[in-house]
Write a structure and sequence with these properties.
Strand order of the largest sheet: 7-8-6-5-4-3-2-1-9
Low-confidence stretches: none
Bound molecules: coenzyme A
Distance between the termini: 26 Å
Mean pLDDT: 94
């Protein structure tokens, strides 16, 4: 069976690497953020046990069983966890994968999501010889659409009623969330879409087998 290798990817400011047990506290904090709950399907409230099973079971299985790869996004200088990039629903025959991502609230607005996703795409195209990266954003998720646009993704259309997001019911103050259906915008990135961007970035990114990098 085909699967991605265990890797780390370094960019100018970030290191993307497999999750470790020591990431659990920072991960729990990140997952309980309002925007993460609203725009993703993570369990709510997100507990230490959720993080533990994600790191020990879900993430390794995603890679081992060929569905994708989960990478913890960390700041190179501080080594703090700032987010997650997740390649999923990989189609090895088509050489296409779908990317999901999140950045911790305190680290947003610094261009980290764009930097992490772009570096992952570069690795996927150059090293893994993939031909397509797909991205799906909820119709109202403006920040995520901005990320897609910034890295050069092309919007391909709308999947009507294809997603679920969570909102606070109007007038409710008890912290409850409600799931509502939403349209999804499909974006794609092909290797040629990155050509211009790669030349713009001064020193580009670098990747290594995780064991080598450690
Ligand atoms: C979407 C998300 C990953 C962006 O992370 P980030 O590191 O702040 O992203 P970047 O800094 O690379 O880019 C964000 C861009 O969105 C813009 N932005 C942020 N909030 C916005 C909003 N409400 N409306 C419009 N644009 C917005 C920022 O200004 C920035 O654009 P700029 O660089 O042109 O100024 C982060 O907000 C997040 O984790 N959200 C919750 C989870 C989520 O939505 N994941 C994606 C699911 S598809």
């Amino acid at each position: 069976m085909t699967s991605f290798p265990e890797i780390s990817i370094s960019t100018e400011r970030l290191v993307l690497r497999p999750y470790e047990e020591s990431d659990i506290p920072a991960m729990v904090e990140m997952m309980n953020d309002e925007s993460v709950i609203a725009w993703t399907s993570v369990p709510y409230p997100y507990t230490e046990a959720d993080a533990r099973s994600f790191i020990a079971e879900f993430a390794p299985a995603e890679r081992a069983e060929g569905r994708g790869i989960v990478l913890a996004v960390t700041e190179f200088l501080t080594q703090r966890l700032v987010g997650t990039v997740h390649l999923q629903r990989t189609d090895w025959r088509i050489r296409s994968s779908e990317v999901g991502y999140m950045i911790a609230p305190w680290a947003r607005g610094e261009g980290y999501a764009a930097e992490a996703v772009q570096a992952t795409a570069q690795w996927l195209f150059d090293d893994q010889k993939f031909e397509r990266l797909e991205l799906r954003t909820a119709a109202d998720n403006a920040a995520s659409q901005q990320v897609a646009q910034k890295i050069g993704c092309i919007s391909e259309g709308v999947l009507r009623g294809a997603g679920l997001v969570r909102i606070r019911p109007e007038g409710e103050t008890d912290g409850r969330w409600e799931e509502i259906r939403t349209d999804l915008i499909v974006w794609s990135l092909l290797p040629e879409d990155l050509d211009g961007l790669a030349e713009e970035s001064a020193d580009g990114s670098d990747y290594a087998a995780y064991a080598d990098w450690q």
